[in-house]
């Protein structure tokens, strides 16, 4: 398993992280019986618009998980906005840093990161060694050019990019700010103690690249523009009466990971160096910059979303076909798989089989197997598989030879196939339906059984 996926699973499934879901999933009733307040969750809505819009609409972090979030939050006022001034970290604030590190050190994500770094160095690290490595990575006070900086301030808090005091009514650029929980609090969120002032004005979704439209389908990541009316703290950590309007033309963060989850991911990227990953079927480039010449210290770290994966699956006969990848390119095409639509069997590529009801957690286990019924190789680039709920999986550059079967695993944040009657469609690159199949409630009731068409 990918080391980043391993850390993510340890955090979200076993640790203090909370699972994220889309607002449209909640509104459609898809999450009925799924949302569990004892485990926590986050609801994300990247289809919103307007400066008062809430892209994180609901956050539930149970008391059993909140400690490290609170310890992290205590550190937010240890920094001043102006990078031209050096942050004067008091002995009390150093103790806050140590308490935070001591709290996250025994957690599973951090321990997995420690083991990965140890393997990379050829020897196991002690907890003390890794605690010192975290301290240097995030709390070392250094220079980024002429600017004073630290990893924690840039990644978790955010800072003014320009040196010097600026007029409050003029928005200057915001650097860093890659922790979802801080954005939630700054956007008028609340925890068990208090409700926080709303200091965020939302801009819009800002995904870039050829797969930009897919970003809003992945609730584990947000890429956006916004302005933040940042409060000014003095070097003693006291809130002043000043604020500074800071503009983020494009920025982003993972959603749902705990503070230790984000630290663990950062430490592996910093000290092991792996820059590409797939987490919950979404592809990322992990961007990291060092602080000055210190190779063990972080200037910034954040995920850059690249697309959604459709992995190779297993065919009904148990044999493997060639690898294929794909993406989800828009929200829904329910009309294509509506109940009244007839079945279609074309002369090119058809849907030969599907696994719609996998045992246990079905996420990422649903498969569709394609068959090339023609006499020529066919490139499936930009062909689409439409799930029964209208969810779209768009295939990338994949060749299927004549007479070949191509099993594809449908990768998404939640299961997309109904365990009741439904339809699946295959569209070519010109959006022509090449194959449409239907299955019954009785067929879908049996777990781990491939339905043949």
* Integer average pLDDT: 87
Number of strands: 25
Strand-residue proportion? 25-35%
Counted by DSSP, the helix tally is 10
The domain count comes to: 2
Rounded to an integer in angstroms, the radius of gyration calculated over CA atoms is: 24 Å
Unreliable stretches (pLDDT < 50, length at least 5) are: 311-331
State the major sheet: 6 strands, antiparallel
Strand order of the largest sheet: 14-20-19-23-24-15
- Report the helical percentage: 10-25%
Alpha-carbon distance between the two ends: 33 Å
What is the 3D shape? elongated
Structural class: alpha+beta
Describe this structure in words.
The protein has 453 residues and is an alpha+beta fold. The chain folds into two domains: 3-307, no CATH class; 326-452, Immunoglobulin-like (Sandwich), CATH 2.60.40.1260. 21% of the residues lie in helices and 30% in strands. The protein is built from ten helices and 25 strands. The chain has helices at 3-14, 23-27, 67-73, 91-104, 108-121, 127-139, 151-157, 180-186, 259-271, 441-444; strands spanning 19-22, 41-44, 56-60, 142-144, 147-149, 159-160, 172-175, 200-205, 221-233, 239-254, 276-279, 282-291, 294-308, 326-327, 344-345, 349-355, 367-372, 378-379, 384-386, 392-395, 399-400, 405-409, 422-427, 433-439, 451-452. The chain has a six-stranded antiparallel beta sheet with strand order 14-20-19-23-24-15. Helix 4 packs across helix 6. The protein is elongated. The two termini are 33 Å apart.
